Structures are given as structure tokens and as C-alpha cells.
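Comment thread on ticket #2218

A.B. wrote:
> Attaching the input chain for the structure job we discussed in standup.
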Amino acid sequence: MTTADSQEKLKEEAKALSERLEKLIRDEDPQARMIRSLCVYAGLLTETLMEYEEPDVVMEQAFHRIADLLHSDPSEGDAPEPLLPLAYDIDHDTELGRHMARNVAQKLPKGLDDVHEIAIALVIGNFPLWEKEDFGRDRLLRMLIETVITALTFEMATQDFCDLLIEDFIADERSVSEGIIALAAVAGHLFEIARHSAPLPDDAELQFTNVMVRESLRHGTPGVKNWGVLAAANDAPIDDIPEYIKILKPQIDEFFVLIGMEDALGQAVAVAKAVGRMVAVITVEDVGQIHPSIAKSLAKTGMILGMRHHGGAQKISNDDGGAE
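C.D. wrote:
> Ran it. Output below, let me know if you need it in another format.
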């Protein structure tokens, strides 16, 4: 394929992606459509970054390149960008972008390298259009940067927490079932901290649970998709929940400090993704082999118990010097 043919193929796929996005994102509010589209573009970029040994370096190069092409720097300020969606909504739309990136990569000669170029082209093409609707490109650029960083952090955290659970918890003569309950309890505990620190929508708990559901489905977990119909795991070790949180949460807190993720809901979502992936690991791969319905019930039960033990677990963490 010649260079000209390759460029034409990239333009075709970029146009096809843009058209598909218009069909998928049908919010009536222009601001909602813009923000969701931006999150999908961030997901496209995030998926391409995961291909590199040093994704943070490539990410920074991409941001500088986009800023140069837009002739703009990101807006400044220490406070989080108020237009950014809640963490579970960012996860939903960036994962949609990552999924689209993987599909498109199969059609292109250079795979995700070509997708990287498409993602940048879509950003460069849309930001000036959104600017005409009173969204400053400096603010848009900052939101793109923060969203990519969040999506990349979610993926890094998910991998790290799964490794933590397998190597430091399950390997310490604990069962896989205990591991799922323990990690889900930390997720529920963090969600409850988020709910107490800032008002959340009425459906926040459902959307939070769906983070686990989507991640498990994404990695091949079979069976029911609606975890709400699952019965609680009656033999769950309720009295052990504070101990589980005490064991796992300090190391999880340390990761968030190192990575710079301060948003409590973002932390909860990151752990919930790890729970969903672990459900897939133990039901799809040869690690403990638990029936899917049981693994899902354990995760759901652990999350609920973690929420209920929020007060006690918070005291345990503070007594140990854990970060809240």
C-alpha cells in the first residue's frame, strides 16, 4: 500500500468512526454530546498508549502535538474541571472508545499506530467546531488530558490490584472466594466514602455496580448480565470484612497516592474494575474455577458488605494511618 493509499484509508476510517459516534451518542443536549464524544476520543487515545512500554511518555508527546496543532495550551487551575462526567461515566465512554480502537486497528496496516493518528485527527477536527458552541479549546484540551489520564489510571490500577489480590492475598493461604469478597468490599467501602463526601445521583450505586459487570463481560465472563437478580452469598464471612479491608486498603491507598488519583469515586471505580476483571479471571481462566453465578454473587455481596462496614472500616484505616 502506497503512502497516498494509506492516508486515504485513515481518512475513510476516521470518517466512519465519526459517523458511528453520531449514531451511538444521541443526547439532545449539545454539551452532553460534546463531553461524551470527547471521552470516546480519550478512550481511542488510551488504547493506543497501552501498546507502548512507556505510555506516559507517548501520552505527553501526543498532548504536546495536539496543543501545537490547535495553537492552544490547556486551561490552568488546581480544581478538577467541573464539566467532566462522574468517574463511572468516564469509564463507560472511554471503554467504548477503547473497544472502537481495537476494532478499527484490525482494518489498518499499522494497527493501533494508525488509530493513534485517527484519534488525533478527530480531536483536531472537532475542537474548533465545539469552540463555536462556546467551549473554549483550552478548556477542551484540559478535559481531554484529564480524561486520558483517568482512563489510563483505571487500566493501570486494574492490573495492579488484580496482581495484588493474587500475589499478596490469595497466595497467603486464602481462597479465591475470599479474594473476590475482599476486593469487592474495598470497592464498596471506597464508594461509600465517595457517597458521603459529595452528592451522587440516585442511580449511582447501580452505575457503580455496572462498572464491575462491564469489566467482567469485557473479559469473557458468561452468564447473566444483570447482577441485580443474583442472590447474596449466604456463606460470606461478614465478620472478616473489616480485616479484609485492613489488609488490602493500605496498599491500594498507596497506589492512589503514587498515581495522584484523589477523587474518591474514581478510586472506587478503579477497584470495581479490578473486581470485574478478577471475576472473569476465575470463571474463564484456570485460576480457582468458580461458577460464574457464584463469582458474581460473591462480588456483589462483598461490595454491599463493604458499604455497610464503611464506618468501622474507616476507623480501622485511620487507626493504621491509612489515607482516606
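A.B. wrote:
> Thanks. Noting for the ticket: The chain is about 75% helix and 0% strand.
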